[in-house]
Amino acid sequence: MTxxxxxxxxxxxxxxxxxxxxxxxxxxxxxNLVTGDKIFxxxxxxxxxxxxxxxxxxxxxxxEMSEIAAEQFFSENKLEYSVSKIDGLKLYEGKGIQIFCGxxxxxxPRHLVNVKAVYDRASLIALxxxxxxxxxxxxxxxxxxxxxxxxLTLNYPQHQRVGPPFAVSKSEVDSLYGGSFQCQEFEYIxxxxxxxxxxxxxxxxxxxxxxxxxxxxx
Length: 218
Ligand SMILES: C[S@@+](CC[C@H](N)C(=O)[O-])C[C@H]1O[C@@H](n2cnc3c(N)ncnc32)[C@H](O)[C@@H]1O
Known about the structure:
Layout: H1 3-9, H2 22-27, E1 38-41, H3 49-55, E2 59-64, H4 67-76, E3 82-86, E4 89-94, E5 97-101, E6 115-121, H5 132-142, E7 148-155, H6 170-177, E8 181-190, H7 196-200, E9 207-215
Parallel strand pairs: 1-2, 1-6, 2-5, 6-7
Antiparallel strand pairs: 3-4, 4-5, 7-9, 8-9
The site of S-adenosylmethionine (SAM) has 20 residues, from strand 2.
C-alpha cells in the first residue's frame, strides 16, 4: 500500500480544501475554454475544484489512485455515478465527469481524447523531486499540442520542512516544462501569513505561484 493510500484510509488528507481554490477562480479565464470543452485534472483527489469546473459547463476527466477519494467525491457531493473497467483501470462516471481510478502513469492519450486544458493544483508539488520530471514527461506524452495547463505551485526553503507538498521554484518549472511549453507567470507572492502550518514549522517564506503553460511542440 502506498503512502497516499494510507493517507486516504486514515483520513489524513490535509491538502483537501473545503472551498473552491481562489487562484482557479481568478485565472480560470486564461484557459480560454468554452462550454462543453474537456479539462483534465491529474491526481485529482476529491477536489471541489472539479465541481467548479463542471459548473463552468466543462467536461471533467480526473485520475486518482485512491478509490476512497473517487467514491467520496461522488457521494459527498450527492452525484450519481456508475463504475466500469477500462484498460485495467476502474472508471467512475457521473454527469459530465469521469474519474479514472489508478496510476496516472498508466494513462494514455486515448483516455484524454479532446482534452483542451489541464488543471494542476497540489499535483506536481505532491511529487518528490525525482518523480517530477517523469510526471511532466508523461503529461506531455498524453496531451495534445495547444493544450494549456493552469499550474499552481508552492515554493519555500525545502530544508526547513519535509514534503509533501514539495517546494517547486520558478526555475524548476522553467526547466521541467521549458522544452515543449510556452510559460506565462500570472502570480508569484509570498503568502506565509496564510500558511499557519508552515509558520509553526519555522518556515521563512511560502511563495505561491500561478502559471499557464501551453504545449507548443509535439
Ligand atoms: C496532494 S493530493 C492533491 C489532490 C487534489 N489535486 C487536490 O487539490 O485536492 C495528491 C493526490 O494524488 C494522488 N496520487 C498520488 N500519486 C498518484 C498517481 N501516481 N496516480 C494517481 N493518483 C496519485 C493521491 O492519492 C492524492 O489524492
